[in-house]
Amino acid sequence: MKDIFAVHLTEYETSPACVASAPATVKLLGEHTASSDGIVLAAAISYDMKVAISQRKDSSMRFFASDLGERKRASTGTLKYKREDRWANHVKSVYDYFAKLYDFQGKGINVTISGNVPQGLGLGISAAINMATALALKTIFGLSIKNEELAELTCKAQSVFMEKPIAIYDYLACIAPGIRSLSIIDLRIPRRRAVQFLDETWNLVLTDSRVPRTSAEMELNQRIDDCRKCLQYLAPRGGKTLRDVRMSELDDLMGILPESVRRRCIHIVEETSRVLEAEEALARQDSASFGRIMNKSHTSLRNHYEISCPEVDWLVKRSLEIDGILCSRMTGPGFGGCIVSVMQTEALDEYRKRLEEYERIFGFKAQIYETSINGGMKVITG
Protein backbone atom coordinates (compact mmCIF):
# COMPACT_ATOMS: atom_id res chain seq x y z
CA MET A 1 0.00 0.00 0.00
CA LYS A 2 1.52 3.29 -1.10
CA ASP A 3 1.84 6.17 1.36
CA ILE A 4 -1.52 7.91 1.30
CA PHE A 5 0.05 11.36 1.67
CA ALA A 6 2.05 10.87 -1.55
CA VAL A 7 -0.94 9.34 -3.36
CA HIS A 8 -3.12 12.31 -2.42
CA LEU A 9 -0.46 14.77 -3.55
CA THR A 10 -0.13 13.02 -6.91
CA GLU A 11 -3.88 12.75 -7.42
CA TYR A 12 -4.84 16.33 -6.56
CA GLU A 13 -1.53 18.24 -6.85
CA THR A 14 -1.95 19.47 -3.31
CA SER A 15 -0.94 18.04 0.06
CA PRO A 16 -3.64 16.79 2.43
CA ALA A 17 -4.54 19.12 5.27
CA CYS A 18 -5.08 16.05 7.42
CA VAL A 19 -4.58 12.29 7.25
CA ALA A 20 -6.51 10.28 9.85
CA SER A 21 -6.91 6.57 10.46
CA ALA A 22 -9.45 4.39 12.22
CA PRO A 23 -9.15 0.70 13.03
CA ALA A 24 -11.07 -2.35 11.96
CA THR A 25 -13.00 -3.94 14.81
CA VAL A 26 -13.49 -7.59 15.74
CA LYS A 27 -16.61 -8.47 17.65
CA LEU A 28 -15.73 -11.12 20.21
CA LEU A 29 -19.19 -11.44 21.76
CA GLY A 30 -22.66 -9.94 21.50
CA GLU A 31 -22.86 -8.42 18.01
CA HIS A 32 -26.30 -9.93 17.34
CA THR A 33 -27.80 -8.39 20.50
CA ALA A 34 -27.84 -4.88 18.99
CA SER A 35 -31.58 -4.82 18.26
CA SER A 36 -32.29 -5.82 21.87
CA ASP A 37 -30.28 -3.09 23.65
CA GLY A 38 -27.60 -5.69 24.28
CA ILE A 39 -23.92 -5.54 25.15
CA VAL A 40 -20.99 -6.14 22.80
CA LEU A 41 -17.37 -7.07 23.49
CA ALA A 42 -15.16 -5.72 20.69
CA ALA A 43 -11.50 -5.15 19.86
CA ALA A 44 -9.92 -2.38 17.78
CA ILE A 45 -7.23 -4.19 15.79
CA SER A 46 -4.13 -3.35 13.76
CA TYR A 47 -5.84 -3.33 10.34
CA ASP A 48 -7.11 0.16 9.54
CA MET A 49 -8.53 2.59 6.99
CA LYS A 50 -6.86 5.92 6.28
CA VAL A 51 -8.55 9.05 4.91
CA ALA A 52 -6.65 12.06 3.55
CA ILE A 53 -8.53 15.34 3.01
CA SER A 54 -7.55 18.68 1.48
CA GLN A 55 -9.81 21.69 0.99
CA ARG A 56 -10.84 23.05 -2.39
CA LYS A 57 -11.65 26.58 -3.48
CA ASP A 58 -14.97 25.54 -5.04
CA SER A 59 -17.92 23.45 -3.83
CA SER A 60 -16.90 20.25 -5.60
CA MET A 61 -16.04 16.98 -3.86
CA ARG A 62 -13.55 14.54 -5.38
CA PHE A 63 -13.01 11.04 -4.04
CA PHE A 64 -10.25 8.58 -4.84
CA ALA A 65 -10.13 5.02 -3.48
CA SER A 66 -6.49 4.33 -4.22
CA ASP A 67 -6.60 0.60 -3.48
CA LEU A 68 -9.44 0.15 -5.97
CA GLY A 69 -8.25 2.72 -8.49
CA GLU A 70 -11.76 4.21 -8.47
CA ARG A 71 -12.82 7.85 -8.55
CA LYS A 72 -16.13 9.49 -7.66
CA ARG A 73 -17.34 13.07 -7.56
CA ALA A 74 -20.15 15.10 -6.02
CA SER A 75 -21.14 18.63 -5.08
CA THR A 76 -21.53 19.84 -1.50
CA GLY A 77 -24.87 21.43 -2.34
CA THR A 78 -26.59 18.30 -3.65
CA LEU A 79 -25.34 15.44 -1.48
CA LYS A 80 -27.53 12.36 -1.41
CA TYR A 81 -27.13 8.61 -1.38
CA LYS A 82 -26.34 7.09 -4.75
CA ARG A 83 -25.97 3.37 -5.09
CA GLU A 84 -23.32 3.73 -7.79
CA ASP A 85 -21.16 5.83 -5.44
CA ARG A 86 -20.67 2.81 -3.17
CA TRP A 87 -17.73 3.58 -0.83
CA ALA A 88 -17.93 7.34 -1.45
CA ASN A 89 -21.35 7.38 0.25
CA HIS A 90 -19.57 6.89 3.58
CA VAL A 91 -17.55 10.09 3.25
CA LYS A 92 -20.54 11.95 1.82
CA SER A 93 -22.71 10.98 4.79
CA VAL A 94 -20.23 12.28 7.36
CA TYR A 95 -19.45 15.49 5.45
CA ASP A 96 -23.13 16.29 4.86
CA TYR A 97 -24.10 15.81 8.52
CA PHE A 98 -21.11 17.64 10.00
CA ALA A 99 -21.29 20.51 7.48
CA LYS A 100 -24.90 21.19 8.42
CA LEU A 101 -24.25 20.76 12.14
CA TYR A 102 -21.11 22.92 12.28
CA ASP A 103 -21.87 25.29 9.41
CA PHE A 104 -19.08 24.68 6.92
CA GLN A 105 -21.43 23.91 4.02
CA GLY A 106 -20.27 24.75 0.54
CA LYS A 107 -16.57 24.14 1.20
CA GLY A 108 -15.38 21.51 -1.25
CA ILE A 109 -12.87 18.80 -0.38
CA ASN A 110 -10.56 16.30 -2.04
CA VAL A 111 -10.57 12.87 -0.41
CA THR A 112 -8.27 9.88 -0.71
CA ILE A 113 -9.12 6.57 0.95
CA SER A 114 -6.73 3.69 1.50
CA GLY A 115 -6.49 0.77 3.89
CA ASN A 116 -5.72 -2.85 4.54
CA VAL A 117 -8.93 -4.06 6.20
CA PRO A 118 -10.05 -7.41 4.73
CA GLN A 119 -13.44 -6.92 3.09
CA GLY A 120 -16.60 -8.93 3.66
CA LEU A 121 -15.61 -10.32 7.07
CA GLY A 122 -17.69 -8.10 9.34
CA LEU A 123 -14.68 -6.10 10.55
CA GLY A 124 -16.39 -2.70 10.52
CA ILE A 125 -14.75 -1.31 7.40
CA SER A 126 -17.58 1.19 6.83
CA ALA A 127 -17.33 2.50 10.38
CA ALA A 128 -13.55 2.78 10.02
CA ILE A 129 -13.89 4.92 6.87
CA ASN A 130 -16.55 7.06 8.52
CA MET A 131 -14.62 7.56 11.74
CA ALA A 132 -11.38 8.42 9.92
CA THR A 133 -13.35 10.94 7.83
CA ALA A 134 -14.95 12.44 10.93
CA LEU A 135 -11.60 12.74 12.70
CA ALA A 136 -10.04 14.44 9.67
CA LEU A 137 -12.93 16.93 9.38
CA LYS A 138 -12.77 17.59 13.12
CA THR A 139 -9.07 18.38 12.77
CA ILE A 140 -9.33 20.53 9.63
CA PHE A 141 -12.25 22.64 10.85
CA GLY A 142 -11.12 22.84 14.48
CA LEU A 143 -14.24 21.19 15.91
CA SER A 144 -14.37 20.66 19.66
CA ILE A 145 -15.82 17.15 19.92
CA LYS A 146 -14.85 14.43 22.38
CA ASN A 147 -14.23 11.01 20.88
CA GLU A 148 -17.35 9.35 22.30
CA GLU A 149 -19.54 12.15 20.93
CA LEU A 150 -17.70 11.91 17.61
CA ALA A 151 -18.61 8.22 17.41
CA GLU A 152 -22.27 8.96 18.16
CA LEU A 153 -22.48 11.78 15.60
CA THR A 154 -20.73 9.75 12.92
CA CYS A 155 -23.01 6.75 13.39
CA LYS A 156 -26.05 9.04 13.28
CA ALA A 157 -24.71 10.68 10.10
CA GLN A 158 -24.54 7.30 8.39
CA SER A 159 -27.99 6.32 9.62
CA VAL A 160 -29.61 9.56 8.43
CA PHE A 161 -27.88 9.49 5.05
CA MET A 162 -28.61 5.81 4.38
CA GLU A 163 -32.12 6.09 5.85
CA LYS A 164 -31.77 2.97 7.99
CA PRO A 165 -30.68 2.20 11.55
CA ILE A 166 -26.94 1.63 11.99
CA ALA A 167 -25.56 -0.16 15.06
CA ILE A 168 -23.11 1.99 16.99
CA TYR A 169 -20.79 -0.67 18.40
CA ASP A 170 -18.18 -0.50 15.62
CA TYR A 171 -18.02 3.28 16.01
CA LEU A 172 -17.53 3.20 19.77
CA ALA A 173 -15.01 0.36 19.49
CA CYS A 174 -12.93 2.56 17.14
CA ILE A 175 -12.11 4.99 19.94
CA ALA A 176 -10.54 2.44 22.32
CA PRO A 177 -7.40 4.29 23.43
CA GLY A 178 -5.13 1.66 24.93
CA ILE A 179 -2.90 -1.20 23.78
CA ARG A 180 -4.67 -4.56 24.38
CA SER A 181 -7.73 -2.65 25.59
CA LEU A 182 -11.10 -4.13 24.66
CA SER A 183 -14.42 -2.28 24.62
CA ILE A 184 -17.53 -3.33 26.50
CA ILE A 185 -20.23 -1.46 24.62
CA ASP A 186 -23.58 -1.06 26.35
CA LEU A 187 -26.05 -0.41 23.54
CA ARG A 188 -28.82 0.74 25.84
CA ILE A 189 -26.96 3.88 26.95
CA PRO A 190 -24.95 3.75 24.51
CA ARG A 191 -21.49 3.98 26.07
CA ARG A 192 -18.23 2.03 26.14
CA ARG A 193 -16.00 1.02 29.00
CA ALA A 194 -12.60 -0.57 28.82
CA VAL A 195 -11.41 -3.98 29.93
CA GLN A 196 -7.91 -5.34 29.41
CA PHE A 197 -7.38 -8.33 27.12
CA LEU A 198 -5.45 -11.39 28.30
CA ASP A 199 -1.67 -11.28 28.79
CA GLU A 200 0.72 -10.98 25.88
CA THR A 201 1.12 -14.72 25.38
CA TRP A 202 -2.35 -14.70 23.77
CA ASN A 203 -3.05 -13.24 20.33
CA LEU A 204 -6.05 -12.76 18.06
CA VAL A 205 -6.01 -14.62 14.76
CA LEU A 206 -8.74 -14.22 12.14
CA THR A 207 -9.55 -16.91 9.59
CA ASP A 208 -11.59 -16.19 6.49
CA SER A 209 -13.43 -19.40 5.61
CA ARG A 210 -13.89 -18.15 2.04
CA VAL A 211 -17.42 -19.56 2.09
CA PRO A 212 -19.60 -17.41 -0.22
CA ARG A 213 -22.45 -15.71 1.61
CA THR A 214 -25.99 -15.73 0.24
CA SER A 215 -28.91 -13.65 1.58
CA ALA A 216 -27.30 -13.03 4.99
CA GLU A 217 -29.14 -9.74 5.47
CA MET A 218 -32.53 -11.33 4.83
CA GLU A 219 -31.78 -14.19 7.23
CA LEU A 220 -30.59 -11.85 9.96
CA ASN A 221 -33.68 -9.66 9.58
CA GLN A 222 -35.80 -12.78 10.01
CA ARG A 223 -34.09 -13.51 13.31
CA ILE A 224 -34.71 -9.97 14.51
CA ASP A 225 -38.38 -10.40 13.59
CA ASP A 226 -38.44 -13.69 15.50
CA CYS A 227 -37.20 -11.88 18.60
CA ARG A 228 -39.92 -9.27 18.20
CA LYS A 229 -42.55 -12.03 18.09
CA CYS A 230 -41.23 -13.34 21.36
CA LEU A 231 -41.48 -9.91 22.98
CA GLN A 232 -45.08 -9.56 21.83
CA TYR A 233 -45.91 -12.47 24.13
CA LEU A 234 -43.71 -11.38 27.02
CA ALA A 235 -44.40 -7.64 26.91
CA PRO A 236 -47.52 -6.94 24.81
CA ARG A 237 -47.59 -3.32 26.00
CA GLY A 238 -44.02 -2.69 24.91
CA GLY A 239 -41.28 -0.99 26.89
CA LYS A 240 -39.15 -4.11 27.11
CA THR A 241 -36.37 -5.75 25.14
CA LEU A 242 -34.87 -9.23 25.34
CA ARG A 243 -32.17 -7.77 27.57
CA ASP A 244 -34.86 -7.50 30.25
CA VAL A 245 -36.05 -11.08 29.83
CA ARG A 246 -35.11 -13.94 32.15
CA MET A 247 -34.47 -17.48 30.96
CA SER A 248 -37.34 -18.71 33.10
CA GLU A 249 -39.69 -16.56 31.02
CA LEU A 250 -38.44 -18.21 27.84
CA ASP A 251 -38.90 -21.62 29.44
CA ASP A 252 -42.56 -20.73 29.99
CA LEU A 253 -42.96 -20.12 26.25
CA MET A 254 -42.08 -23.71 25.38
CA GLY A 255 -44.91 -25.10 23.29
CA ILE A 256 -46.47 -21.63 22.84
CA LEU A 257 -43.99 -20.17 20.35
CA PRO A 258 -42.35 -22.09 17.53
CA GLU A 259 -39.17 -23.65 18.92
CA SER A 260 -37.03 -21.92 16.30
CA VAL A 261 -38.27 -18.53 17.51
CA ARG A 262 -37.62 -19.41 21.14
CA ARG A 263 -34.09 -20.58 20.30
CA ARG A 264 -33.25 -17.22 18.71
CA CYS A 265 -34.31 -15.49 21.90
CA ILE A 266 -32.32 -17.90 24.06
CA HIS A 267 -29.19 -16.85 22.21
CA ILE A 268 -29.81 -13.13 22.77
CA VAL A 269 -30.61 -13.51 26.47
CA GLU A 270 -27.69 -15.82 27.22
CA GLU A 271 -25.25 -13.87 25.02
CA THR A 272 -25.91 -10.67 26.94
CA SER A 273 -25.05 -12.50 30.14
CA ARG A 274 -21.97 -14.01 28.51
CA VAL A 275 -20.54 -10.56 27.74
CA LEU A 276 -20.77 -9.58 31.41
CA GLU A 277 -19.25 -12.91 32.46
CA ALA A 278 -16.42 -12.37 29.96
CA GLU A 279 -15.79 -8.90 31.39
CA GLU A 280 -15.43 -10.41 34.86
CA ALA A 281 -13.13 -13.16 33.58
CA LEU A 282 -10.91 -10.61 31.81
CA ALA A 283 -10.79 -8.42 34.92
CA ARG A 284 -9.44 -11.49 36.78
CA GLN A 285 -7.18 -12.38 33.81
CA ASP A 286 -8.86 -15.79 33.92
CA SER A 287 -8.04 -17.13 30.47
CA ALA A 288 -9.69 -20.52 31.00
CA SER A 289 -13.04 -18.99 31.91
CA PHE A 290 -12.83 -16.48 29.07
CA GLY A 291 -12.14 -19.28 26.60
CA ARG A 292 -15.11 -21.31 27.80
CA ILE A 293 -17.40 -18.30 27.41
CA MET A 294 -16.23 -17.68 23.84
CA ASN A 295 -16.66 -21.33 22.91
CA LYS A 296 -20.16 -21.42 24.41
CA SER A 297 -21.03 -18.38 22.33
CA HIS A 298 -20.13 -20.16 19.11
CA THR A 299 -22.16 -23.20 20.14
CA SER A 300 -25.14 -20.90 20.67
CA LEU A 301 -24.62 -19.14 17.32
CA ARG A 302 -24.70 -22.59 15.72
CA ASN A 303 -27.51 -24.25 17.68
CA HIS A 304 -29.74 -21.37 18.78
CA TYR A 305 -29.25 -18.43 16.44
CA GLU A 306 -28.48 -20.80 13.56
CA ILE A 307 -26.17 -18.60 11.51
CA SER A 308 -23.18 -20.88 11.22
CA CYS A 309 -22.36 -23.39 8.47
CA PRO A 310 -20.49 -26.73 8.28
CA GLU A 311 -17.26 -25.13 7.04
CA VAL A 312 -17.09 -22.61 9.86
CA ASP A 313 -18.05 -25.23 12.46
CA TRP A 314 -15.25 -27.45 11.16
CA LEU A 315 -12.72 -24.63 11.51
CA VAL A 316 -13.84 -23.93 15.07
CA LYS A 317 -13.87 -27.57 16.13
CA ARG A 318 -10.50 -28.47 14.60
CA SER A 319 -8.81 -25.36 15.98
CA LEU A 320 -9.82 -26.32 19.52
CA GLU A 321 -8.01 -29.65 19.15
CA ILE A 322 -4.66 -27.81 18.99
CA ASP A 323 -2.59 -27.09 22.10
CA GLY A 324 -2.16 -23.36 22.51
CA ILE A 325 -5.55 -22.38 21.05
CA LEU A 326 -7.80 -21.16 23.84
CA CYS A 327 -11.03 -20.53 21.96
CA SER A 328 -12.58 -19.92 18.55
CA ARG A 329 -15.84 -18.36 17.52
CA MET A 330 -17.61 -17.09 14.44
CA THR A 331 -17.57 -13.32 14.23
CA GLY A 332 -19.59 -10.96 12.04
CA PRO A 333 -22.91 -11.58 10.28
CA GLY A 334 -22.44 -15.33 9.87
CA PHE A 335 -23.44 -17.76 7.10
CA GLY A 336 -19.77 -18.17 6.23
CA GLY A 337 -17.25 -15.42 6.70
CA CYS A 338 -14.76 -15.29 9.51
CA ILE A 339 -13.79 -16.94 12.79
CA VAL A 340 -11.70 -15.31 15.51
CA SER A 341 -9.35 -17.44 17.59
CA VAL A 342 -7.35 -16.65 20.70
CA MET A 343 -4.09 -18.54 20.43
CA GLN A 344 -0.43 -18.61 21.33
CA THR A 345 2.13 -17.98 18.62
CA GLU A 346 3.52 -21.52 18.74
CA ALA A 347 0.12 -22.95 17.79
CA LEU A 348 0.09 -21.20 14.40
CA ASP A 349 2.12 -23.78 12.45
CA GLU A 350 -0.14 -26.66 13.46
CA TYR A 351 -3.19 -24.51 12.75
CA ARG A 352 -1.95 -23.83 9.22
CA LYS A 353 -1.72 -27.59 8.66
CA ARG A 354 -5.38 -27.94 9.65
CA LEU A 355 -6.27 -25.31 7.07
CA GLU A 356 -4.61 -27.43 4.39
CA GLU A 357 -6.91 -30.25 5.44
CA TYR A 358 -9.85 -27.83 5.35
CA GLU A 359 -9.06 -26.99 1.73
CA ARG A 360 -8.89 -30.67 0.75
CA ILE A 361 -12.28 -31.38 2.36
CA PHE A 362 -14.28 -28.29 1.41
CA GLY A 363 -12.44 -26.84 -1.59
CA PHE A 364 -12.01 -23.37 -0.03
CA LYS A 365 -8.54 -21.95 0.66
CA ALA A 366 -8.91 -20.29 4.05
CA GLN A 367 -6.95 -17.10 4.68
CA ILE A 368 -5.29 -16.28 8.02
CA TYR A 369 -4.95 -12.71 9.30
CA GLU A 370 -2.70 -12.25 12.31
CA THR A 371 -3.48 -9.07 14.18
CA SER A 372 -2.93 -7.18 17.39
CA ILE A 373 -5.07 -5.04 19.68
CA ASN A 374 -3.27 -1.73 19.40
CA GLY A 375 -5.55 1.16 20.20
CA GLY A 376 -8.00 3.22 18.22
CA MET A 377 -8.17 6.04 15.70
CA LYS A 378 -5.45 8.65 15.29
CA VAL A 379 -4.40 11.76 13.39
CA ILE A 380 -1.34 10.88 11.31
CA THR A 381 -0.72 14.36 9.88
CA GLY A 382 -2.65 17.56 10.29
Count, helices: 11
Q: From N to C, what is the helix and strand string?
A: HEEEEHEHHHEEEHHHHHEEHEE
CATH class of the largest domain: Alpha Beta
**How many independent structural domains?**
2
Q: Average pLDDT, to the nearest integer?
A: 95
Q: Based on DSSP secondary structure assignment, what is the total number of beta strands? A: 12
- Computed Rg: 21 Å
| Low-pLDDT regions | none
Which fold name is given in CATH as the topology of the largest domain?
A: Ribosomal Protein S5, domain 2
| Corresponding CATH architecture of the largest domain | 2-Layer Sandwich
The first-to-last residue Cα distance is 21 Å
Helix content: 40-55%
Query: Any idea what the shape is?
Result: globular
Pairing-aware structural class of the strands and helices? alpha+beta
State the major sheet: 8 strands, mixed
Residues in β-strands, percent: 15-25%
Overall description:
By secondary structure, the protein is an alpha+beta fold. The chain has two domains: 4-199 and 375-381, 2-Layer Sandwich (Ribosomal Protein S5, domain 2), CATH 3.30.230.10; 203-371, GHMP kinase, C-terminal domain (Alpha-Beta Plaits, 2-Layer Sandwich). Helices cover 40% and strands 23% of the residues. The protein is built from eleven helices and twelve strands. The chain has helices spanning 4-12, 88-102, 125-140, 147-162, 169-173, 216-234, 247-252, 259-283, 287-303, 310-319, 348-362; strands spanning 18-29, 39-55, 60-65, 70-75, 109-115, 181-186, 191-196, 203-208, 325-331, 338-343, 367-371, 378-381. The strands form two sheets. Strands 1, 2, 3, 4, 5, 6, 7 and 12 form an eight-stranded mixed sheet that branches. β3 and β4 (70-75) form a beta hairpin. α2 packs across α4. The two termini are 21 Å apart. The model has no long low-confidence stretch (mean pLDDT 95).
